[in-house]
Amino acid sequence: MQQEVAKIAELDAGGLLIGENETPEQFLARISAIVAAHRQFEEILAAQGEATVFEGIKVKSSDRIDDAIAAEAAETTRQLYDFSVDYVPGFFLSGEVGLLWGGCLIGDNETHLSVFLIRGIFKKKQKWLFYNRRELMAHELCHAAHQILEDRRTEEYFAYQTSPSRLRRYLGNCFIHGYDAVLFVIPSMILLLAQVLQFAWLPHLPVWPFWLLAVIYPLFLFTRNQLSRNQIIKAKRNLSQLDFAKTTAILFRLTSAEIAEIARIKDPATLKSYLADKQRNNLRWQVIAYRFMRESDDEKMD
Question: pTM for the whole thing?
Answer without folding.
Answer: 0.89
